[in-house]
Design brief:
alpha+beta, Alpha-Beta Plaits, Dna Ligase, domain 1, five-stranded mixed β-sheet, four-stranded antiparallel β-sheet, 13 helices, about 40% helix, globular, binds magnesium ion
C-alpha cells in the first residue's frame, strides 16, 4: 500500500491575514517585515509585491528600491498564531497524524483516514474549502506518496490550487524534476550541481554514488536518496497531549469565594472548547484547579473524574479555597483537565471486542 501525504501551505500567509483584516491593503504591494533602520528583512510578500520581484528573505531596503510604494507592516504574530491554531483544529477533523512545519504549513498523513472514502485528493479539497469558509484565507495543497514530493507539489501552480502526484507518476516526475526543487537545495548547491553537469534528478541517478557523496557529504546522501525516490519516512508527530488548561492572572488579588466562583465560571467555556479538540465528548481522566497565592506559592487540587463538569470543578475549587488558602489572597486561577489515557482506552476497546 502506498502512503498518502498531504502538504498544506497557506498562500502568502502573513500578508493574506493583513489583507483579510484590512481590505484597503488587498490590491496594493504589501509585505510583512522589519524596518530599514533595523536592517530588517521581508518575511512575506503578497502577489502584487511579488510582481516587482520582492520575495521573502530579501532585505527590506532592497525591496523598497524595487517598489517605492511598497507597504511594509511589522506583522501581528499573535493573530497569525491564532489562525494557525484554527488550521490545526481543522486538520484534526481528518487525522491526528499532523507534522506542523511552520505556522502556515503542515504535513498530514491520511493513509489510513476513512474520511472522503479515503481519497487524499477529496480530503485536501475539503480542507481547503473549510479553511476558506472558516478563516477567509486560501491554502494550496500537494498530495503524493512521498513526503518531500507532497511539499514540492503544493508549490506547483500556487496560489489556491491543489496538485496531485499519483503513485504511478512518481518515477517519471522525479526523473524530470530539477534538483533545486528538493527542499534544502539552495542557489549555492544548485550552482555546484550545474557545474558538474547535474540539473535533473535523472542526472544524479546516472552519476557515480561515491563521487557524489565525496563532493556533497552528508547532505549529498539526502539529495541522492530523494533523486532516487527515497523519502525520509513517517511524520514527526508531537507527543500526545496529556492535559489542557486555562489560566488567568487577576488584576487584583481576591479574597472572596463569590468572586473566585464567577472567575471559574468565566474561564470554564475556554477550557471546554480546548478540551473538545482532543476529546470531542469531553471524556477526561480527571480535572482540577490551580491557585497562586499572594506570596506566589502554588497549590493544585485534582480529582479523578470521567467527564468535564463545572459543578464538580467548583466543588474541588471550594475545597481548596477552604482548606489551602489560609487567609491569603489569590492572584492566579487555573483550570485543567487530564485527557483520557489513550493506551488504556485502546486496551478497553480490545477487551470489549
Ligand atoms: Mg505559505
Amino acid at each position: 500500500m502506498h502512503k498518502k501525504y498531504i502538504h498544506i501551505d497557506m498562500d502568502c500567509f502573513f500578508a493574506a491575514v493583513e489583507m483579510r483584516d484590512n481590505p484597503k491593503l488587498a490590491n496594493i504591494p504589501l509585505a510583512i517585515g522589519g524596518t530599514v533602520s533595523e536592517r530588517g528583512v521581508i518575511s512575506t510578500a503578497n502577489y502584487p509585491a511579488r510582481c516587482f520581484g520582492i520575495h521573502s528573505g530579501m532585505a527590506t531596503a532592497s525591496a523598497l528600491r524595487l517598489c517605492e510604494n511598497l507597504v511594509v507592516l511589522p506583522g501581528r504574530m499573535s493573530v497569525y498564531k491564532e489562525v494557525s491554531q484554527q488550521l490545526h483544529e481543522i486538520f484534526l477533523r481528518y487525522t491526528h497524524l499532523i507534522e506542523p512545519v511552520s505556522l502556515d504549513e503542515a504535513y498530514l498523513d491520511v493513509s489510513n483516514s476513512s474520511c472522503c472514502n479515503g481519497s487524499a485528493t477529496l480530503i485536501a479539497n475539503d480542507i481547503r474549502k473549510i479553511i476558506f469558509n472558516e478563516t477567509n484565507l486560501t491554502a494550496s495543497a500537494g498530495i503524493a506518496p512521498l513526503k518531500f514530493l507532497a511539499k514540492i507539489a503544493s508549490d506547483i501552480n500556487k496560489p489556491n490550487v491543489i496538485y496531485v502526484i499519483k503513485p504511478c507518476e512518481v518515477i517519471v516526475f522525479i526523473k524530470n524534476m530539477q534538483i533545486r526543487k528538493i527542499p534544502g537545495v539552495g542557489p549555492k548547491t544548485e550552482e555546484r550541481l550545474l557545474s558538474m553537469g547535474l540539473k535533473t534528478c535523472a542526472d544524479v541517478q546516472c552519476y557515480d554514488f561515491s563521487s557524489f557523496i565525496k563532493e556533497f557529504g552528508k547532505f549529498g546522501f539526502s539529495i541522492w536518496q530523494r533523486c532516487h525516490g527515497i523519502d525520509d519516512g513517517p511524520l514527526c508527530i508531537d507527543p500526545p497531549r496529556k492535559s489542557v488548561g486555562v489560566e488567568f492572572t487577576l488584576p487584583n488579588d481576591i479574597y472572596s469565594w463569590d468572586k473566585c466562583c464567577s472567575i471559574i465560571e468565566s474561564l470554564y467555556p475556554e477550557l471546554e472548547s480546548r478540551l473538545i479538540i482532543y476529546s470531542p465528548h469531553k471524556n477526561i481522566s480527571g480535572h482540577g484547579i490551580k491557585f497562586k497565592f499572594d506570596n506566589f506559592k502554588l497549590t493544585t487540587h485534582n480529582h479523578a473524574y470521567p467527564i468535564l463538569d463545572l459543578t464538580n470543578l467548583l466543588s474541588i475549587a471550594k475545597n481548596a479555597w477552604d482548606i489551602r488558602r489560609e487567609g491569603r489572597g489569590v492572584r492566579l486561577i487555573g483550570l485543567h483537565a487530564y485527557l483520557p489515557n489513550q493506551l488504556k482506552m485502546k486496551q478497553l476497546q480490545l477487551n470489549y471486542n
